[in-house]
């Protein structure tokens, strides 16, 4: 029994090390500054928000989203970058926004779901995810940690031990 526990502890520690090394990569594309896969489509708000905030921070424009009184030219550049990172199916929400702050707030109101239904859906996805569905260990860990990141973004973070336990629970017995 002690040997099994020690093996599980080692596996959890190895998974925690993998989680610590996991760093999202944001690549710039020719239009909008974000790769097409990161453009907001109405279903990926959490991922888009993370990527877009980092893109605006890198461009020195994040303050345009946080503040009311900013340089007009910088604000328009930030607004354009936000607008160019939205797929047409989701752009109706910001067409009338005059500032980057207004656009960001309209998108937040339209797509950020902190409610009970969202939380239950994320927990359900988290506990139902199985290694066999993902094709590789990397894809499996990415899926689990992605859901954990979404839970954190709505104020329900999971500690690394819990995430490691969930990962182990979704692995095949053999």
UniProtKB/TrEMBL annotation:
Pfam families: Retrotran_gag_2. This is Uncharacterized protein. It comes from Trichinella britovi (Parasitic roundworm).
């Amino acid at each position: 029994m002690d040997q099994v526990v020690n093996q599980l502890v080692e596996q959890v520690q190895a998974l925690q090390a993998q989680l610590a090394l996991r760093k999202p990569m944001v690549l710039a594309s020719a239009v909008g500054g974000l790769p097409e896969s990161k453009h907001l489509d109405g279903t990926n708000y959490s991922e888009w928000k993370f990527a877009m905030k980092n893109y605006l921070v890198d461009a020195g424009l994040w303050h345009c989203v946080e503040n009311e009184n900013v340089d007009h030219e910088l604000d328009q550049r930030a607004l354009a970058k936000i607008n160019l990172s939205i797929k047409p199916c989701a752009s109706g929400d910001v067409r009338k926004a005059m500032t980057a702050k207004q656009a960001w707030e309209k998108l937040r109101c339209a797509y950020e779901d902190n409610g009970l239904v969202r939380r239950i859906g994320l927990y359900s996805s988290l506990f139902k995810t199985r290694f066999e569905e993902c094709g590789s260990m990397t894809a499996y860990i990415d899926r689990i940690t992605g859901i954990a990141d979404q839970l954190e973004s709505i104020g329900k973070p999971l500690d690394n031990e819990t995430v490691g336990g969930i990962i182990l629970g979704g692995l095949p017995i053999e």
